[in-house]
Amino acid sequence: MSVPVVLGVDIGTSSSKGVLVGLDGTLMRSAVREHAVDCPGPGRFEMDGRLWWEEFRELARELGQDAEVVAVGVSGMGPCVLLADSNDLPVRPAILYGVDTRSTAQIARLERELGAEEIRSRGGSDLSSQAAGAKIAWVADEEPELYSKARRLYMPSSWLVRRLTGAYVLDHHSASQCTPLYDVGRLDWHRPWADTIAPGIELPPLRWPGEPAGTLTRQAARETDLPEGIPVIIGTVDAWAEALSVGAHHPGDLMLMYGTTMFLVHTTPEHRTWPGLWGTVGALPGTYNLAGGMATSGAITAWLRDLFGGAYQELLQEADASGIGANGLLMLPYFAGERTPVMDPQARGVIAGLTLSHTRGDLYRAALEATGFAVRHNIETMRAAGGDIRRIVAVGGGTQGGLWTQIVSDITGTPQEVRATSIGASYGSAFLAARLVGEASIDTWNPVRHLVTPRPDAVTQYDQLYRLYRQLYPSTAGIAHALAGRQHR
């Protein structure tokens, strides 16, 4: 391959993905390394951080063979907490983002000590299972011997940057999800709280995603077979790299990511806070976000496939045949608790209306509709917070096939743009890398392929079902909480 290319790699929940992209946006090669998440106890989700570098090396060697790689972009799931010692050896497995709900006691303590309103005002978000700062506090409280060895904080993207360039650095967006350690108004760590909550940790200097982190070291070149000295970008959290991959980073835009979990990122020109949402800084300077995320979405469809068997395409066909309302089924998609706007780690999945006549297609349809209702709940909350959503751009593997995106547009009553390339965060990271070495426009790289428009009759029917959906959680929450207390895995 004689043309210059950029390498983009994203470390995700269920896999690491790499792409080799020409400087005009043409996808040349792609590769995936699947991996599993460790679940050592109820509400605990972890991963060995060393795996992130191992899979990056494998992807780089496979994709970069005989290619003229001129820059590298990285991203990863987040916010995660990987604590390492002074020799950059992890002291324990990385604690994952909001799906990990272990820090409930630390959240309650920090709210008492610092004040919930003060935390939201300074940090942009309420403390929740998404808050990386509370998870650092959990390690300090529950594993003091391991914590005493910790000196640095990493997330997947910054871990890769350290291995590639030797730079210890984190992007502003990722830092803004380390609530309550970061001050959104000052765009910097809030040292009084950081020194109290994360004593002994040398918090990384902060830069913006897409800025140069450094160049590939000789050691990293040996391990990856990439050219020594090529530039590497500051990375960021996967959902924000995904938003960049489809051009959803302007004020008024909402990126809707269809994946293992569902993520929503609405860009605003000023900082906003609201209970039940995450207020963060954006991926680019001068932007802010109201963000939301579901604990499960595609994870439920994968669970159903594992239970019932069959290929995804077959299940989608059966779900399509089931029709609006899934033959009288209604589901709460809280199978791993719920993040925004419910913010309830003890919430649980509910399937209401089951009879002996229901099929796997009905259940699959109910799962797709449940995620659509949850998306609408998040969008309504963002608008209540003052968000001005003028354009929705869909991205991720769930956009393939068309049924899921159609259901979401019908439930929300809003169109969705689908771009030509929906690979996701790895493509967005490659785009940022390309901007380091030349001119690159995402509208040229990744033009709009089609528009998913809501169907008026379906919108009317889903309005009625949405009212029932909103009643289902408060009607069953007490029972779900009691059952959650009896669950051991």
Automatic annotation (TrEMBL):
The keyword Kinase applies. The keyword Mitochondrion does not apply. Residues 5-243 form the Carbohydrate kinase FGGY N-terminal domain. Residues 255-435 form the Carbohydrate kinase FGGY C-terminal domain. Keywords: Carbohydrate metabolism, Kinase, Transferase, Xylose metabolism. Its EC number is 2.7.1.-. It comes from the Bacteria. PROSITE patterns: FGGY_KINASES_2 (PS00445). Gene3D superfamilies: 3.30.420.40. GO terms for molecular function: kinase activity. SUPFAM superfamilies: Actin-like ATPase domain. InterPro entries: ATPase_NBD (IPR043129), Carb_kinase_FGGY (IPR000577), Carb_kinase_FGGY_CS (IPR018483), FGGY_C (IPR018485), FGGY_Carb_Kinase (IPR050406), FGGY_N (IPR018484). Belongs to the FGGY kinase family. This is FGGY-family carbohydrate kinase. It comes from Nonomuraea mangrovi.
